[in-house]
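Q: Given only this backbone (605 positions), what sequence would you predict?
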């Protein structure tokens, strides 16, 4: 009688590690993150990260932390061996990046790994070699103080995983993003990043978080906001509504120094900008949230990219309150060039106010400080009177556009904008027009942006948008992630009128831009790439997102004086296109105050 083999069996340790690697190490950037976090947990003051082949061929992470003894190094590649936890209570108050003891064994399971380490007081170091799933080789070796980990041939044992990787530029961009947010969460630590022997990023140790934020976000004026409420400390640096983009791609959230994706904090940021942002858009910047480690559970995601708060409603309310009041105060004081247009207020030189959270810093020596970032002078493009509102698509019949709250739904008929009488301009941004028993206020940029957008949509039906070739290509400095988009979305960019060629590791050459573009074409390219980077959905959907950005950079700007003739031209064009009542980014373009409402305001009724 034959005995049937049991169907339930214990998996070999090597297979278990490969399964764990599938959860922890998704791409080269995942390995960079795990290795760098180990170095930060070892209290490193400097990290050197070097990549070859976008991290697929080789990843090197070298730190000057406290290193490991030979016994510790031998255990480092054993799954669930860790120095971060000892008791169940430690799991409830996690104060380190790592704690599961999975990262090194998971990486070693899908690569050829070499670990070199020495404690400052030891006479010699230790080398650990691991590959092919075999037992690691541990031997003495000369080594500088600290730890160096070299990962070669990532996923060579799992070729199917390599097929899921993106282009080399996209994978490199993901690695750059990891280094940037680690630098944001650890301003006192120095970081260098090299790729194929070339420097990509260098962050010197900073005394304040504001200094590091300025390095990571050099092109966007950010408003600093800070506060402590109910045991939760918040420090944020946020861009103005005009820099908002769909999704949270350019908004970094750091909870106790750990980068996370959290709906409560994202919703709180959006609520702080209530009435100023298009639906689904968020400002660029970074939000630091520090609280008692016991009030947040970081053990809820395989890659620790999400957290669970004991009281998420409290976190939402605190972050919203601090940000809303801080942004309102900045607007009222005129100190935030990123929030309000106009000349920036004077910034005191190198003011350093240490930001101390109400609980001990849980992730090593991180001193957050507050220095208002310098605001660049506002430069507005020229606005030729006749060329600004040129005719585009033929008039189309459209439903009556809606109006603001309390205005009748059928206040306007097709053709009614052209019948308005220009009465003036206020704040160099809003047009005042008089109609029968009503005053119409028009945001000149939003209205013209919608007109240009509809013209561009009509033109796109016949082929790519007309482009303006440049005699000399313009160098366009770009982040690595935007360079990846420039390479991957060349067809979409061509439809929008851009001719872009990646050039080196940190810039592209702009050879042509959409005809009629006003302002800085490099900035228009940069914003278009950022929009294209948000999600996918087919070429048509990508191009539709880019059209709104091109329209924005082709429209009259806020802060530009316009003549009555220009206003009348705009009003005619608003009747000739399927206008609606919002700009392509969702902001209201016009509103109505009726005569009856005015008379009620002044007590005449």
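A: Predicted residues:
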């Amino acid at each position: 009688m034959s005995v049937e083999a049991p169907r339930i069996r214990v998996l070999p340790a090597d297979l278990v590690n490969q399964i764990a690697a599938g959860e922890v190490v998704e791409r080269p950037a995942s390995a960079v993150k795990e290795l760098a976090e180990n170095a930060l947990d070892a209290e490193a003051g400097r990290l050197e990260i070097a990549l070859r082949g976008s991290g697929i061929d080789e990843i090197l992470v070298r730190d000057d932390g406290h290193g490991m003894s030979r016994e510790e190094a031998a255990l480092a590649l054993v799954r669930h061996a860790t120095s971060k936890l000892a008791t169940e209570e430690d799991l409830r108050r996690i104060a380190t990046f790592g704690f599961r003891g999975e990262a090194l064994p998971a990486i070693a399971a899908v690569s050829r790994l070499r670990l070199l380490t020495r404690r400052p007081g030891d006479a010699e170091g230790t080398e650990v070699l691991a590959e092919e799933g075999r037992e690691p080789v541990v031997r003495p070796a000369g080594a500088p103080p600290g730890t160096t980990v070299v990962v070669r041939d990532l996923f060579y044992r799992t070729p199917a995983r390599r097929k899921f990787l993106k282009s080399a530029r996209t994978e490199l961009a993901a690695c750059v993003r990891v280094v940037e947010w680690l630098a944001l969460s650890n301003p006192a630590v120095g970081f260098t990043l090299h790729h194929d022997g070339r420097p990509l990023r260098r962050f010197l140790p900073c005394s304040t978080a504001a200094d590091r934020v300025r390095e990571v976000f050099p092109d966007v004026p950010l408003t600093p906001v800070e506060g402590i409420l109910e045991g939760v400390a918040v420090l944020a640096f946020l861009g103005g509504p005009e820099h908002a983009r769909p999704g949270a791609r350019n908004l970094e959230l750091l909870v106790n120094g750990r980068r996370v994706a959290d709906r409560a904090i994202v919703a709180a940021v959006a609520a702080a900008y209530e009435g100023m942002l298009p639906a689904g858009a968020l400002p660029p910047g970074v939000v630091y949230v520090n609280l008692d480690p016991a009030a947040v559970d970081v053990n809820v995601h395989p890659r620790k990219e999400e957290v669970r708060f004991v009281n998420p409603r409290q976190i939402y309310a605190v972050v919203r309150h601090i940000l809303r009041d801080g942004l309102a105060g900045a607007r009222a004081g005129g100190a935030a060039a990123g929030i309000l247009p106009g000349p920036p207020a004077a910034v005191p030189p190198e003011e350093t106010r240490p930001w101390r959270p109400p609980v001990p810093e849980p992730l090593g020596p991180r001193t957050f400080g507050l220095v208002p970032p310098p605001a660049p002078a506002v430069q507005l493009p020229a606005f030729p009177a006749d060329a600004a509102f040129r005719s585009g698509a033929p008039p189309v019949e459209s439903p009556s556009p809606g109006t603001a709250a309390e205005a009748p739904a059928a206040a306007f008929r097709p053709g009614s904008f052209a019948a308005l009488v220009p009465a003036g301009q206020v704040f160099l941004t809003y047009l005042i027009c008089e109609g029968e028993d009503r005053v119409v206020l028009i945001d000149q940029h939003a209205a013209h942006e919608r007109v240009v957008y509809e013209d561009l949509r009509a033109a796109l039906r016949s082929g790519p948008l007309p482009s303006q070739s440049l005699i000399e290509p313009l160098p366009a400095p770009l982040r690595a992630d935007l360079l990846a988009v420039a390479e991957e979305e060349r067809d979409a960019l061509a439809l929008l009128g851009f001719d872009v060629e990646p050039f080196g590791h940190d810039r592209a050459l702009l050879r042509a831009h959409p005809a009629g573009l006003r302002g800085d074409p490099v900035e228009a390219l940069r914003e278009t790439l950022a929009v294209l980077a948000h999600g996918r959905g087919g070429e048509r959907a990508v191009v539709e997102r880019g059209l709104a950005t091109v329209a924005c950079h082709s429209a009259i700007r806020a802060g530009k004086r316009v003549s009555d003739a220009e206003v009348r031209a705009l009003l005619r064009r608003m009747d000739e296109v399927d206008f609606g009542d919002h700009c392509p980014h969702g902001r209201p373009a016009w509103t109505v105050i009726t005569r009856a409402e005015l008379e009620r305001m002044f007590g005449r009724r």
